[in-house]
Amino acid sequence: MASKENSIQLYKSLMTKFKSGEFLPVYFICGEEQFFIDRLQEAILAAIPPEIKDFNLDLLYGQDSDIPRIVNAAKSYPMMAEKRFVIVREFFNSIKVGEGRENLSLLEPITAYIQKPSDTTVLILIDSKKPAANTKFGKAFKESEKAMLCEFDHIDGTQIPDWIMGWTKTEYKKQIQPEAADLLFQITGTSLHQLSTEIEKICTFKKTDEPISVADVKSVAGFSRQYTIIELKDAVIRRDLKETTYIAEQMLQMASADAGEIIRSIAFFYTVFANIWKYQRMVQKGFTPAQIDKELGGPYRTKYIAAEAKRFKQKEVLLIFEALLDADKAVKGFSKLDREAIFLMMLRRIVTRVA
């Protein structure tokens, strides 16, 4: 079966099951978000009691294995244990022949195994590439109740701050303020590996039970700029064009106008106005304060989103979305303007609500 959850939901679901020792006979774990894949493998290995691991774990790599070896390992019975675990990294390398070409016919034995897997083996196939849905191998995961295809795409930039807050809470039992999470995303980018490292450093530094603040992120993450995206946002929300332009120019100079940083800044502002739009729509539809708090992530977050939303009419927010989308497209190569000009023009359109 194929998962219909997004990457974050799928990761949480699998992690809960793996930690409780609940496994299907076959998994194919794939995708570009390597952080989730690595963490899940760690959870699988941790679920195997150390005293039986030597006899009941095969950790294989595709380039060093062929399909018959993988199938034979999966069909082997566990020794003095209920389950045997077979993990195959870079799986599709096992069917490469000649000049790196894949021979899909070599998948027939393992396809047959997936259709009738052993209940005493947990077979985990891992690769960055997803099985083709129109092949027998790909269809086997869709048709079998004992096999699961788990695909982890990169998390969208708009989801990163929420992931930071969730990760900080679940892994370190600490709270991080939404604005601090936004700032950490702006500093670090979308790499979950790097973000998790920074979160660990910040949580180690933070000795009290108070929520992690913007000041904590600046102090620990080595952020040395005079201005941050938070100060820029505040100037935008105040509709102060002069201050907005000045802060943006200072930030661009310090960042050397890196395309990735500008794209992250655009994504940040998209999140800001998406939350404003969501709040306005819920108020319009008569949602209760409790319902709004639940949708936006709690009363603290609702409070500052509500304050920001009061400064914008709904029709103005629609114009702002147009400015953001135009800037995102332009920065990614659909304009001859330089990146700094594109970013500054976007901010001007937001502040003045010019279509």
Task: Give the gist of this structure.
With 355 residues, this protein is of the alpha/beta class. The chain has helices at 7-19, 34-46, 50-56, 67-75, 108-115, 136-143, 160-172, 178-188, 192-205, 214-220, 229-237, 241-255, 259-284, 289-296, 299-309, 314-334, 339-352, and strands spanning 26-31, 57-61, 84-89, 96-97, 101-102, 121-127, 147-152.
Q: Secondary-structure map with pairings?
A:
Blueprint: H1 7-19, E1 26-31, H2 34-46, H3 50-56, E2 57-61, H4 67-75, E3 84-89, E4 96-97, E5 101-102, H5 108-115, E6 121-127, H6 136-143, E7 147-152, H7 160-172, H8 178-188, H9 192-205, H10 214-220, H11 229-237, H12 241-255, H13 259-284, H14 289-296, H15 299-309, H16 314-334, H17 339-352
Parallel strand pairs: 1-6, 1-7, 2-3, 3-6
Antiparallel strand pairs: 4-5
Describe the structure.
By secondary structure, the chain is α/β, with parallel strands linked by helices. The protein is elongated and about 70 Å long. The chain is built from 17 helices and 7 strands. The model has no long low-confidence stretch (mean pLDDT 90). The strands form 2 sheets. It has a 5-stranded parallel β-sheet, sandwiched between helices. Strands 4-5 form a two-stranded antiparallel ribbon. It folds into 3 domains: 7-152, 3-Layer(aba) Sandwich (Rossmann fold), CATH 3.40.50.300; 155-224, Orthogonal Bundle (Helicase, Ruva Protein, domain 3), CATH 1.10.8; 228-355, Zinc Finger, Delta Prime, domain 3 (Up-down Bundle), CATH 1.20.272.10.
How widely separated are the two ends?
46 Å
Order of strands, widest sheet: 2-3-6-1-7
Can you tell me the number of structural domains?
Answer: 3
Number of strands: 7
> What does the average pLDDT come to?
90
CATH class descriptor of the largest domain: Alpha Beta
Number of helices: 17
Corresponding CATH architecture of the largest domain: 3-Layer(aba) Sandwich
- Helix/strand order, N-terminal first: HEHHEHEEEHEHEHHHHHHHHHHH
Percent of residues in helices comes to 55-70%
Oligomeric form of this entry?
A: single chain
Main sheet overview:
5 strands, parallel
Could you tell me the strand content as a percent range? Answer: 5-15%
Q: Could you give me the name of the CATH homologous superfamily of the largest domain?
A: P-loop containing nucleotide triphosphate hydrolases
Unreliably modeled segments = none
CATH third-level topology of the largest domain: Rossmann fold
- Helix/strand class: alpha/beta
